[in-house]
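Title: [Solved] mannonate dehydratase 3D structure

Original question kept below for reference.
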Amino acid sequence: MSKITAARVIITCPGRNFVTLKIETDSGLHGVGDATLNGRELAVASYLNDHVIPCLIGRDAHKIEDTWQYLYRGAYWRRGPVTMSAIAAVDMALWDIKAKAAGLPLYQLLGGACREGCMVYGHANGVTIEDTLAEAQRYIDRGYRAVRLQSGVPGLASTYGVSKDKDFYEPADADLPTENLWSTEKYLRSAPELFAAAREQLGWDVHLLHDVHHRLTPIEAARLAKDLEPYRLFWLEDAVPAENQANFRLIRQHSTTPLAVGEVFNTIWDCKQLIEEQLVDYIRATVLHAGGITHLKRIANLAELYKVRTGCHGATDLSPVTMAAALHFGLSIPNFGIQEYMRHTADTDAVFPHQYQFADGYLHPGDAPGLGVDIDEPLAEQFPYQRAYLPVNRLEDGSMHDW
Ligand code: GCO
Ligand code: MG
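Solution (posted by the thread starter after getting help):
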């Protein structure tokens, strides 16, 4: 028994907002969990402060599964990003404590390493195809084996994934949502040109990925997946919104381009049909937004039966705590596919000192006991919360579209 004596939520903005849960125990060990929900941070902070923390005090920190069930079933109101991010933060912190108590890096408790490291992909983006490919080459030169390509669309002033700062793409950049303009017709013309040029210039040894960011209808997505087939993508991500999982059937009927989805999923129920009908190849649910290690393990285990691999979301809005948890998880499961890796700024890295390291296109979580990541609370305090929103998206005629 290791009694939970205190738990607190730390909100900090070292360049962007992060919400972190820190749990303390009477054994002197503490654990950290990430509770960041981009653009809706304070909702999760309140869920934890007002509804979860009072139930944690006095509980046995080692009862991870029981605590998960208690918070999930006990809430009566199930699922959703706020609830599941809050549960995830508790779950991560408890796994951190258990692994520290065992004196082992977390991946050892999850079954031990299945591989030497987790292959990651970086983000190359540019206003023109030429810029984007120059960026991609920069990633390849740094040792990356996989690169996501996003390029500006001729005729559109801004495009998802194309940022001013090359290393630290940060879409939640305004006090109120900025408005972007979108044209599916223009995009469907330009995306295949990007990948044709990429294969010509970068060759075939690098894995190439692309994110559609939920903007197409099923038949439009089918056309894009088919047009991109000759360039052998590693994956085409979020081709359509996935509230209706059956949307993916149409894309599947038309193309062998591998499909990835799931960064906004919260539970196994969001991807059950996608996995069981083998409508996707990679599932992008995360430790953070999908209920912690305890729940993501269930998703990965189901996926394994159907030869679906993981490709966890790893944008900058997931803190180094999530990155560390994802790496322990990825190292230990048989059906790991790839891990997204958007680097954090130096300020964020300083607030969250961590053990994970990049080498030769792989990240390794390190061998420190626990998650191998912590929060520097006095430093975190120097970066107060700043409201920030993700953009919204409109079509050229003014109608709202998916961002
Ligand atoms: C990705 C994602 C991000 C999201 C961001 C929203 O593939 O990394 O699509 O770019 O837009 O994480 O919070
Ligand atoms: Mg994405």
